[in-house]
Amino acid sequence: MALKSLKISGFKSFADPVTIEFDQKITGIVGPNGSGKSNLTEALRWVMGEQSPKSLRGGKMEDIIFAGSEKRAPLDRAEVILKFDNHNRQLNIETDEVEIRRRLFRGGESECLLNNKKVRLKDIVDLFLDSGLGRDSFSIISQGNVERIFNSKPSDRRFIIEEPAGVSGFKLKKHQAQQQLQQTDNNLQRINDIVQELE
Ligand code: ATP
């Protein structure tokens, strides 16, 4: 699976639409300080489901929308579109190309599309689980992350291996199943209380 292109508009410093084609084996992005290199990797993480404004260097999610400059008024919408080559079906979707799209409007409404169909953000996150990609994977290593990984405890570092090995997805599903069991237990207890009251 390879990235094919990234299109961003209204995202952080990228007011106008910009498309980057990843048509070579290696794509390097260079530019002076503050020109938006990190914003590009953040756009990648965001479209793949990032939900923490803090990890996108913001206070709230709306901070990712172009906030205006000396010459331009702020915009009302941020959009990122990412296309993958999926010939090898690494993503569990039966199309050779997969396109994910995420939009956020000032005011808070947001939208996610997978191959042009509206989906939940969770569907996008699930799509990348165990693929070695995704917002939490180590295919994107942000500034400061290398130091954090080296300084972390071995038990925390295990996560790096678990993600591409496919363990993280099972852990998440186990956690969700446990939560459902707990919820069912609570419901049963409540029913028992009501039955006892009625007897
Ligand atoms: P460095 O090489 O110093 O790490 P960089 O090329 O990675 O820099 P970024 O950190 O990606 O640069 O970009 C920072 C720029 O993005 C700043 O000029 C900042 O004002 C701008 N920026 C961030 N959020 C927004 C926003 N919502 N609207 C407009 N501009 C923004």
UniProtKB/TrEMBL annotation:
<feature type="binding site">
    <location>
        <begin position="32"/>
        <end position="39"/>
    </location>
    <ligand>
        <name>ATP</name>
    </ligand>
</feature>
<comment type="similarity">
    <text>Belongs to the SMC family.</text>
</comment>
<comment type="function">
    <text>Required for chromosome condensation and partitioning.</text>
</comment>
<comment type="subunit">
    <text>Homodimer.</text>
</comment>
<protein>
    <recommendedName>
        <fullName>Chromosome partition protein Smc</fullName>
    </recommendedName>
</protein>
